[in-house]
Amino acid sequence: MENNVTSGNILKHIAFFAIPYLLSYFLQTLYGMADLFIVGQFNAVDGITAVSNGSQVMHMLTAILVGLAMGVTIDTICIMISKNLERNCSSIALQQ
């Protein structure tokens, strides 16, 4: 199946590419909630606080890694398409 993202409704294409990220973020949130529930059954407030803070750190690291992966993907595609980055990737503003 070929998908032409240069024509058609831009919001539809953006939503199509955002769905995997949103699903992974949702699953990570569910995992954090399950951790809090289990720790809450067996520990006091200090355990719940520790799990909550750890969950927030993991959300932050996930967002950073996803952003870095997007940047590396753009750079890799531009290099694969052409050795002339100024001509093909000027709209992305790569600094090399």
Helix content: over 70%
Strand % is under 5%
Strand element count: 0
Figure out the total of helices. Answer: 3
Q: Span between N and C termini? A: 34 Å
Major sheet summary line? none
Shape: elongated
Q: Give the uncertain stretches in residue-range form.
A: none
- What letter string, H or E per element, gives the SSE order? HHH
Secondary-structure-based class equals mainly alpha
Mean pLDDT: 78
Give the radius of gyration.
20 Å
Question: What can be said about this structure in brief?
Answer:
The chain has 96 residues and is mainly alpha-helical. It is built from three helices and no strands. The protein is 77% helix and 0% strand.
Protein described:
The structure is a single chain. With 96 residues, the chain is mostly helical. 77% of the residues lie in helices and 0% in strands. The chain is built from three helices and no strands. The longest helix is centred in the middle third of the chain and has 37 residues, at 45-81. It is elongated and about 55 Å long. It starts with 9 loop residues before the first helix and ends in an 8-residue tail after the last helix.
SSE arrangement:
Elements: H1 10-42, H2 45-81, H3 85-88
Helix pairs in contact: 1-2
Keywords:
mainly alpha, 3 helices, elongated, 96 residues, 77% helix
